[in-house]
Amino acid sequence: MREDGKIDYVELPGGKLPATKDFYNAAFGWTFTDYGPDYAAFEQGVDGGFHAQPDEEGARAQPLVILFAHDLEAMEAKVKAAGGTIAQPIFSFPGGRRFHFTDPAGNELAVWSDK
User: Fold this and answer.
1) Which of 104, 111, 106 is nearest to 82 (CA)?
2) Is residue 45 assigned to a domain?
């Protein structure tokens, strides 16, 4: 059920759309609905938060989409096998562990686990 004020949609640059779709399908099992040759929609659950730590001076802040995984190491391997690049290897933080990766279009995302 959708609620007022909740994040409901995340739109990311797609780069070479077929390669981006192939990556997310191989790594996470996502499927897509194409709306013409330049747009593909996906349906995934979304929660969010704000990061108060400032970025490096002069760097433009970017949204960071964070995905969940029960087995972080297995998901990292799937991301690599699908053609993703690990931007930050697995690290611990209060509440769990996560890693960051870039997809074929250059978007940086993260995957976290509470284990």
Assistant:
1) 104
2) yes
Residue 13: φ, ψ to 5°: -60, 140
Residues pairing with 98 in the sheet: 91, 112
- Rounded distance, CA 70 to CA 112, Å? 8
In the prediction, which pLDDT does 81 show? 96
CATH number of the domain encompassing residue 96:
3.10.180.10
pTM for this model (two decimals): 0.77
Residue 33, in any domain of the structure = yes
For strands 65-68 and 108-113, give the pairing: parallel
* Higher-pLDDT residue of 29, 46: 29
H/E stretch holding 20 = helix 17-28
Q: Which residues span the domain enclosing 27?
A: 17-49+60-113
Contact 31, 24 (CB under 8 A): no
